[in-house]
Amino acid sequence: MAGDKKLAVVAIGGNALIRDREHQGIPDQYEAAQLTVQGIAEMIEAGWKVIVTHGNGPQMGYVLRRSELSIHEVAPVPMDYAGADLQGGLGYMFVRAFRNEFRRRGMAREPVAVVTLAEVDSDDPAFADPTKPIGSQMDEKRAKALAAQQGWTVKEDAGRGWRRVVPSPRPQSIIDYRAIAHLAEAGFVVVACGGGGIPVVRDADGRLRGVEAVIDKDLASSLLARAIGADLLVLATGVERVAIGFNTPRQRWLDRMTLAEARGYDAAEEFDKGSMGPKIKALIEFTESTGKRGLITSPAGLCRALQGVTGTILVP
Questions:
Q1: Which positions of the chain have pLDDT values less than 50?
Q2: For residue range 228-261, what is the model confidence (pLDDT) as tens digits?
């Protein structure tokens, strides 16, 4: 990317929009989005060009639950279309929040949301062994009936009932990265890659086809950041810093990791595979490929983390 301002990709988790069980509605999620964009707006005021990516895990669960409840009346929503719907809905939420925040601060900036496709490999091993639970918990009889009717794969979920499971293939390319980069270079605050991108594969003739799958948001954000030549990848999560020995007597918060240290901690399985592990892998891939910094912190701690006050920074 050319230009005198540095470019950052800031990835926000879908869970960041849901504070607790009592605040899961759309108005509640918008209020959380308003709080989230405040830190990003400060970053933009400081001179950064920013592309925001976001997860959609809880929101996808809501969409699929509604689809299951109405399956006797209307056809279920394919996951690629559900992902596109959520990119539009959550993109609108972030764009509105940014517009209101920019107006409050007197900033002449324009946000825009881009429906983003992420290509995956049709031969990815994940398709042979779906493991990602989605949708609601069901009893075994209903789960197996829906599996037979809809062609789903269902599995027992740790004794809590049965759930549909889908593949989580590794993203290979962000198809819309050139448009995203062009908008960011032109000064727009871009919201993109929602939910890790809409998963598509290429048929033998090169045509794109949507698939029933979910993509890890952090891996997709890392891939996008590499494709556009970002100077910084920020993974915003529920904690301000990363810890090794988390929730054990040897717990230690990390202010800084070198690439070699991060690889060592990851190999030693210091990070939970379901939460912090994928984030560390995403940062490792970004820093390893670009030689640039990665950062993990909370949305509220973003500006303080950029000043070195909090957060965990990954350096080459």
A1: 1-4
A2: 999 999 999 888 899 998 888 899 999 999 999 9
User: 14 catalytic, yes or no?
Assistant: yes
In a domain, 1, yes or no: no
| Distance from chain centroid for Cα 249 | 31
137, 258: one domain: no
132, 155, 210, 277: the active-site residue: 132
Concerning whether 197 is annotated as a catalytic residue, the answer is no
Can you read off the two tokens belonging to residue 213?
Answer: 């799958």
Nearest-angstrom CA–CA distance, 62 and 134: 10
Q: 14: domain range?
A: 7-122+170-311
Q: Are 163 and 153 in contact (CB under 8 A)?
A: no
Closest CA to 230 of 308, 312, 173, 287: 287
> Does 6 participate in catalysis according to the annotation?
no
pTM of the model: 0.90
